[in-house]
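Q: A reviewer asked whether we had any structural model of the full assembly, not just the individual parts. We don't, so I'm hoping you can provide one. Inputs are below.
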Amino acid sequence: MLDVIKPLVLGFLFGWALHKAGLTHYARIVNVYRFRDMTVMRFMLTALVVGAFAIQVGLDAGFAASAPVPPTSVLANLVGGVVFGVGMATAGYCPGTVVAEAGEGRLDAWVAGLSGLLVGAMVFGLLQPLVMPTLSRVGSYGRITFAGLTGASPWLVLLVFAQAVALVLLLIGRIVRASESSPPQ
Amino acid sequence: MARRPFGAWLREKTWSPYAAGALLGLVVAYSEVFCGRPLAASGAFDKLAAYPGRWLFPSSQYYRYVMSPGITWQVWLVVGLLAGSFASSRLSGEARWRWLPDTQWQERYGPSRALRLGIAFVGAVLVQVGAGIAGGCTSGLAISGGAALSPGAFVFMAGMFAGGIPAAWLWYRGRAG
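A: Here is a predicted structure for the entire assembly that you could use as a starting point for your response.
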């Protein structure tokens, strides 16, 4: 029962955050790639830093032995990212925001977005045996982290990471402040 | 911050992206520390598509050995996501049925519903294929993996920009808007 309630509650807050951040707009997503609206970057990078610190606090407090780390497979991560970015800049969607747009009543997300994700999942299913053995041959390191890779304390990695994110946010502010569309268009 | 009733805050159309991002960060951390799972949206579609996929492609290695269908944790997460976005937009008075994105789309592509559905469908297919190849999407790999300080998450984000910037440039080539 908790295995249903917990993801429902977490998903609810996830959808709430996506909508309140204004990410249910085609222009908000596409304009990231045109350097005209960096709301998505501000939202994502804040989530990354807050999440990373909160996870480390949780681990240090002994609530879990480790966090789930996705495998690093450089070529697959990169090629997948490129295909993903092309799709995102084309439709103004990512899997989470398609669902958030559907929740807001957008019929293109219900009709084309959700069906496209399901068809895309099947296309990947057919491609997987053909492409993944090759792609995962290059630069596969398994479930590594920066801390594990460098042997540094995770807190030191977090501090460097937070500083890098602060710098990126500062630069983003400089670049797009003039052209940013404040109400989503 | 000026004092204002909690209800008014819930009904606001948008929050600062920093506030909404901090909320998402805490949700990601809870999911990873207390549930042992990334907060991932794309996985649900792999699980759901395995129902028709297994039936349509009975000899597929992927559907035989790798991906089994199921109403899993990830699927319930996406159901919650739908409800959360509905609740937030309903409270802020923005939930309504509509076919087209707002002004920028219509200025670029015009009022055709069929064109929006066609481009949205192709984009959604690419997004899910890309997530499959990379091993996750914006939420499951970039944000959840990035918060766990996985190098792969940052490689994926670099790839997103490497694909997204030229694609957006092609779609908007020669346009001022």
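A: Points you may want to mention in the reply: The first strand of chain A starts at residue 72 and ends at 73. Residues 37 and 180 of chain A are 5 Å apart (CA to CA).
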